Amino acid sequence: MNDRVVNVILAGLGGQGVLKASEIVSTVAFRAGLDVKQSELHGMSQRGGSVSSDIRFGREIFSPMVPPGEADFLVVVAPDQVEVHRHQLRPCGVLITPDAVDATKLASRRSSNVALLGVLSHHLDFPEEAWLEAIRAAFAEKLHAANLQAFALGRASR
Amino acid sequence: MNVSDRMLLSGDEAVARAALDAGVALGTGYPGTPATEILEHFSEIGGRAKWAPNEKVALEVALGVAFAGARAIAVMKHVGLNVAADPLFTSTYTGVTGALVVMSGDDPGIASSQNEQDSRHYAVAAGIPMLEPADSQEAYDLTLRAIEISERWNIPVLLRMTTRVCHSRTVVRRRAGVTAAPAPHFERDIRGRVMIPAYARTAHRKLRRKLAEIQAWNESCSLNRVEAGEPALGIIASGVSYMHVREVAPRASVLKLAFTYPLPVEKIRAFASGVERCLVVEEGDPYLAEAIRGAGVDVQSKAEMFRFGELDADRVARIIAGDTSPEPPAVPGKPPQLCAGCSHRYVFEAFRKLDCIVAGDIGCYTLGVLPPLEAVDACVCMGASIGVGLGLRHVLPPQQARRVVSVIGDGTFVHSGITGLVEMTYNPPPTGHVVVILDNATTAMTGHQENPSTGRTLEHDPTGKLSFEELARALGIADVVVCDPALDKAGFERVLGECLANGRINLIIARHPCLLIAGTLREYERAAMQCCEALAEDP
């Protein structure tokens, strides 16, 4: 990883695991020894409203918020939230939507957040084991199988 | 320092971690976004934490802890500081023997609040030293420093944070060498702690002397640092605004302030005189800019349009450029709503059906204001539903007055509704009144915290339980009806209709557990039953 700051935005609706997914991404970057800032606004999120989380990592991060129009990756778990966030993406940034993964193949429909992280993981320079470790750390043991399957599905779909 | 000392923590978690590392004897507070997680995390990692009925009580309990020579932290959101303002203003007179940190979480941009107040004004008004962290590391460090300052000058310290700092996760390294917490002990200090006028006059002068000393100390304090850059532009910033400044103006000279009351005026003057253009970048009210100008230092400040909402890198770039052209409108997201099947929905449907004028309150049920329900006519602050409803009843023409109801949740009722209920029995309006308590057995909006009416502590262990029915009857309210609006929708409507018509003062308790934690509630109850049985068997 060079000096460049990587900006990721995860978005969706309350209850879709946006904050859980962003915890996983930031944990992976943190354990790689990078400076990390992850920022979200919650409070109303549990009531089904829009939720988004900014994750920035690199050698040194200042603002915890991705500056408008500077997201390198925009991962959106709810299809109807794409247009809400599209303007945050860089002109050459990568948009990852639920279409990226065949949802019918998910062991649990609730794991689409982690499946999209599988897709994101392709584009980032972290070893696969680091992702798996962060996923295991983020969920109770009974949820490991479904989430690891979702991650593998996302990672295999390119 | 080993590797495990490097952690990724939210600002809230960092405050809790520092409180634990400093041996804080008790953390008190009331849930409120963005500060709720501090006490939850403090308890989780082994600290002793308690939810109080409201912020005023929380601060009073914390003050008692600090009178006993121990370290205390009281945690609340910005509007909670208003509730706690009464003890706050006199706690600076009495001072403390141990340490007292008052944490207030401001909400610029109003992510989840009823106003956008800038609590920094409280520091000036109450004469309480104030620290403002910019990220989680500073939240950790400044909590420790707040304790040191509090103990050194025997004064409470305000730790003022914002939603962005509370809820952002950033890297934190713990500090070694925190001084051990003193053992609690009582020493009598009648003149110092009993604020009758004669002693309070002396205490006020003493406070001002302390603040003058602290200001002098702050002039050379390392918490405010100059980051040298090009002299063409010098920026004074505090809190998360500093981070945005570093993002967009990497070459500027920066005076980063963390100890923002009493301000290090001479340090600021020296910085300003060393740069060609000196600009203050701050979120919310122009607190720093006005204080600095008041001290006779000529600085520029942001345009009025940036008083509103959070700052971000783009807005800070605009402030620096003096760009006041209209900002692009925010793309609307999906607003939150009452959960499908939530029992509150049935209550608001009944209000609509009976054409009620609804004095509402703070909680999930405030969402009853949004389409399609649109069944809330006022929402001001915690507990206001009852007073506002009574006021409407007192003066509206009878045919309108009879349609007024006050609706309030269980947690909010305990927080600030009890005195409203007393007002209803003391000064009943000519048409009577109807108060509806929505009792869903939890403080749902902030993430399902316990409160005195759930009968469980912060850790969900059984404790004394406040009964709304018995309280109301003790206050002299004869008409108390308990019903379940989800299981018996028609029954609730009938009861509401009868209460509106009877011209007396009525309390309806609409009781149905929050759907989101119904299973968890059953587990708590099962555990409590087992606990009771075990006690019964063990004489």
Give structural notes.
The complex is a heterodimer of chains A (158) and B (539). Chain A has a 5-stranded mixed sheet with strand order 2-3-1-4-5. With 158 residues, chain A is an alpha/beta fold. In chain A, helix 1 crosses helix 4. Helix content of chain A is 34%, strand content 23%. Chain A is globular, with a radius of gyration of 14 Å. Chain B has 3 domains: 7-219, 3-Layer(aba) Sandwich (Rossmann fold), CATH 3.40.50; 225-321, Rossmann fold (3-Layer(aba) Sandwich), CATH 3.40.50.920; 343-534, Rossmann fold (3-Layer(aba) Sandwich). In chain B, the strands form 4 sheets. In chain B, strands 3-2-4-5-7-6-12 form a 7-stranded mixed sheet, with helices on both faces. In chain B, strand 10, helix 11 and strand 11 (252-257) form a beta-alpha-beta unit. In chain B, helix 1 (11-21) crosses helix 2 (37-44), helix 11 (239-248) packs across helix 14 (313-321) and helix 16 runs parallel beside helix 18. The two termini of chain B are 50 Å apart.
Tag the structure with descriptive keywords.
heterodimer, A: 158 residues, alpha/beta, Pyruvate-ferredoxin Oxidoreductase, domain 3, globular, B: 539 residues, Rossmann fold, seven-stranded mixed sheet, five-stranded parallel sheet, 21 helices, 17% strand
The number of helical runs of chain B is: 21
**Strand ordering within the main sheet of chain B:** 3-2-4-5-7-6-12
H/E element order of chain A: EHEEEHEHHH
SS field, number of helical segments of chain A: 5
Structural class of chain B: alpha/beta
What is the class of chain A in the CATH system? Alpha Beta
Q: How much helix, percentage-wise, in residues of chain A?
A: 25-40%
Average pLDDT reading of chain A: 93
Write the layout of secondary structure elements.
The complex is a heterodimer of chains A (158) and B (539).
Chain A: E1 6-13, H1 18-31, E2 35-40, E3 50-58, E4 71-76, H2 82-85, E5 89-96, H3 112-123, H4 128-138, H5 144-156
Chain B: E1 6-10, H1 11-21, E2 26-29, H2 37-44, E3 49-51, H3 55-67, E4 71-77, H4 78-83, H5 85-94, E5 99-106, H6 120-126, E6 130-131, H7 136-153, E7 157-162, H8 163-167, E8 169-173, H9 190-193, H10 197-219, E9 225-227, E10 230-238, H11 239-248, E11 252-257, E12 259-261, H12 265-273, E13 277-281, H13 287-294, H14 313-321, H15 343-353, E14 357-359, H16 384-395, H17 398-401, E15 404-409, H18 410-426, E16 433-439, H19 468-474, E17 479-483, H20 489-502, E18 505-511, H21 518-537
Parallel strand pairs in B: 2-3, 2-4, 4-5, 5-7, 6-7, 10-11, 10-13, 14-15, 15-16, 16-18, 17-18
Antiparallel strand pairs in B: 1-8, 6-12, 9-11
Helix pairs in contact in B: 1-2, 1-7, 3-5, 11-14, 15-20, 16-18
